[in-house]
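fyi for ur records
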Amino acid sequence: MTLANDSIIVSPGVGATVATHLLSGKEHQAVVLAGPDGHIIGSTEKYKLFQQPRVTTAAATDFFDLFNAVGSGKKVRVWGIYPILQVTAANALFAFHFIALVTSAVGTGGTAHTYKSATVPLTAGSVDITPFVTANAALPVQITARSLPTGGATVAYHMFDFFLFMEELNNHQLMQYQNLVPILGTREADSLDLVEGEGMKIRQITATASTGASIGFLVVFDLV
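which gave:
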C-alpha cells in the first residue's frame, strides 16, 4: 500500500514536477486520490475470508470469528459481508436469525483458518483467507480467523441483526450478491473498522433440525 506525500507549493518554473496529461491540446494536471487514512485509493492490500457453507443445526452457534490482535500494526477494514446460501433439498423453513458482533478477544477452539488453501472444495464450515493479489504481503500473524469457535471471541458490542430465508422456491439463495455491511450517507459502502484488539463474528440465534440448508459467509477486507 502507498501513503500520500505531503502537499507541495506549485509556482510556474519553480518547485517539484507535477504530472500532467495532454487532452484536446491542453495539459491537464494528473492527480491521485487518497482516502481518510492517507493511503492512495486502490493501493491497499485486499483479502477475502471464505467460509464453506455448513448445515445449520444448533442455536447460539458462532459461525466464525475474525480477529486483529495487538501487534499487527494494521487496522482491518471490513467492506463486505456476504451470506452464501446452499439449498440441496426441498425446504419450507422459517427465517434464520443471525447477529453480527464486535469482539474484544480472539476466538478459541473450533478450527483455525487456512491461508491460500489449495483444497478444492473446502471442508464444510472451514474458513480460508486469500489475498486478492498474489503479490500481497503475507497476512500478519496477529490477524486470525477460525470456524465454530467454542471459547474466547468475547462480545464487545452488537453491530446488527439479519435474517436469511432457506426456502427452495425463494430467490434468496442469491444473497451472496447482497452486502450486509450497512450503507451510510451517500457512499456505496462504509467499512467496519477493527483496530488492534478488536474482531468480529457471526452468531446464529435460531436452530433447525432440517437437512439441505447450509450457510457460509464471504468477508472482504483490506489492511491499513
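Residues 116 and 130 are 5 Å apart (CA to CA). thats all i got for now
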